[in-house]
Amino acid sequence: MANSVYSINKGINRPLEFKGLKAQYIWYMAVGVFGVLILFVILYSCRINTYVCLVIGLSAGASWAMWIYKLSHKYGEYGLTKKLARRSVPKSIRAARNRDLFVGNLNGVYGKSDERNVADNGGRA
């Protein structure tokens, strides 16, 4: 019986990469290819000349691929996700004009101030 030779996977804890695209950019490319295919089908079903459909489809596909490769090389595996997350962080936190919400929470009642608690409890604090 012959000995089998197995190659060892030395890419443990490395991002998934295919032809220079890293991680989520592979999915973005797949969505783009599917979108260009749908665009071609719609144009072809509208009885537009086949060569015009091909030119539009190829140019849309090429521009999409160049844009995705540019994003992949510029931001890397998680850089685009971090950039989009950084956009959703507020620039500043503004407090409310009154402290009723916080005072009520200290007393165990949410959103009511001391005066309202006394009135609601029949004069008991």
Task: Describe the structure in your own words.
This protein is mainly alpha-helical. The chain has helices at 25-45, 50-75, 79-87, 100-106, 114-120; strands at residues 17-18, 21-22. Strands 1-2 form a two-stranded antiparallel sheet. The chain is flat.
Give a brief description.
The chain crosses the membrane at residues 25-44, 51-69. The chain is mostly helical and 125 residues long.
- Compressed to H and E, one letter per element, the order equals EEHHHHH
How many strands? 2
Query: What is the approximate shape?
Result: flat
Biggest beta sheet summary: 2 strands, antiparallel
**What's the structural domain tally?**
2
What structural class should be given to the helix and strand makeup?
Answer: mainly alpha
Ends apart, CA distance between termini? 88 Å
Number of DSSP helical runs: 5
Instruction: Give the DSSP E fraction (strand runs of 2 or more residues).
Output: under 5%
Poorly predicted tracts of residues: none
What's the gyration radius in Å? 29 Å
- Mean pLDDT across the residues is 78
InterPro entries: DUF4133 (IPR025407)
Transmembrane segments: 25-44, 51-69
Pfam families: DUF4133
Keywords: Membrane, Transmembrane, Transmembrane helix
Describe the structure using short key phrases.
125 residues, mainly alpha, two-stranded antiparallel sheet, 5 helices, 2 strands
Write the layout of secondary structure elements.
Layout: E1 17-18, E2 21-22, H1 25-45, H2 50-75, H3 79-87, H4 100-106, H5 114-120
Antiparallel strand pairs: 1-2
Helix pairs in contact: 1-2
